[in-house]
Structure prediction request, 440 residues.
Amino acid sequence: MYLNDRFNDEWALSPDQSLKLHAGNQAIPNQLIVRSPKGRNKATDLIHGTSILEIRAELPPSNEVTVKDGIRLFSVAAGLINATPGYFTQNHIDARAALGMVNDSSEVLHLLLEGGHSTIAGRLIGAFQNIGRDRIADEIKKTMRSAGYDVRINDPFESEVDSEILIKTKTPAINRIYLMWDSMRDTVLDHFPAPPGMPENQGKYLKEVEDVYVTDAYHSLSIEGYRVSAELINKVRSGSWNPEVDSQDSEHRDAMAARGYWQVFQAVRESIKKVLVGHNPGMVAYDDHGDWYREMFTPSVTAGIIKASDLAGYRNASVYIQKSMHVPPAASTSREMIGELFELIRNEKEPAVRAVLGHFMFVYIHPYMDGNGRMARFLMNVMLASGGYPWTVLPVEKRDFYMKALEEASVNQNIETFAVLLAHYVQEGMKGDPIAKLKT
Prediction:
C-alpha cells in the first residue's frame, strides 16, 4: 500500500476521518487527511478530483492506533479525544454512532487524565449526555473533578436525538441507519404533501396501478440501462413472449429484464392488495420482498443469462457503485442492516417517510448484487400506497438528477434534494397529470 511504503507504517488517518470509518461511514472523502511524523504538509492530487493531504504531526501511542481493512486509524477513544470541535456538528450522525461504541468511561478517561484535557472532557460529557449515556457522562465528570480539574460541560451538538435510538444496539452500522432515519424524517415531512388516506375504492386504485405498468416498466428499466420499448413491454405483458419459439427472446438480456419486470410487478401488486386492507406495510414488504427479487430474475436464470445461485438472495460479496463516492457496507453488515431497515419501516407512522427513506436506505445498504434500484422503487410505491398516494414513476429523463440526489443523501446525509424530487412527482400524480407519457 502506498501509505505504508511511504511512511513505514508511521501514519494514521486524521481523528475525524478515523471516527467516520469506525462509525461505518465508508463514503470516499474528497480529500484523505493523513497524519505522520514524516508528512510533507502538502496535498497530492488523485483522479476524480480527490487528493491525499499529508500533515506532519505526531501519532498517538501504538495502543491507540488500530488497523481496519489495512487502514491505520486512531482508536475510537483516541479519535474522540483528538477530534476537532466542529466534527460533532458537521458529522453529527457519525459522531453519535462513534460515541455509541464506547462501553465504559474508562475507555476515554485514561486519555483525558493523562493529557489533562479538561476542555475536551467537558465536551465529551455534554456529548454523552446528548445521546443518553448519562452514566458514562457522570463518571467522566466525577473522575475529572476528583483529579482536580475544573470541567465545564458543553454539548457539542446543535440538536437533540431520541436517546432510545442508541440504547438499542452498539453496532455502529445499525446506529447509523437509526440516526439517519431520525435526522431525515422531518425534512421529508417538510416537503411532502399530506397523505390522501387509504382509498375507499380499492379496485379503482389497483386498476390505476395496472394502467401505469407500461410507463413504469419503460422508465424504471431504462434508468438501469436496459434498452426496452413499448412494443417489447406489451409483448411480454400480452403473453406473446415465447422464448421456446423465438430464440431472440431467449437470448435477449433486455427481453429477460422486461419479462422479469412484468412478473415482479404482479407480485408487488399483490403486496399492495394486502396493504390496502390494513396489513402493516413494513411487515408486508419484509415478508414479500424476497418473492419480488426472485420474480425479477427468474427469467434471466431460465434463459441462462445469470446463474441459478444468483437467486439465493442477499449478496455475499462486496459491491461498488459506478461513479459514486458511497461504498455500500460489507455483505455481512448489509444483511444485518436490511432487517433493521424493515423494522424502522414497520414502526414508522408516516407513509411519506416510509416511502422516501425506505427507498433511499434500501439503495444505501445495497443488499443485492443487482436489482437494488428497481427493488427500491417497488418498495417506495408499496409504501406510497399505504398512504393512498398514487403509484409514482421516476422518469428516465431525470436519471442524472435522481442519482445525484441519492449520492447527496448517501455521502453527505442530506435527504432534502431526494425528498423534493419524489414529492414533486407524487404531487403531479395526485393532480391526475401523467408523470411521463411513454411515446408509442
Confidence is low (pLDDT under 50) at residues 434-440. Residues 2 and 410 are 28 Å apart (CA to CA).
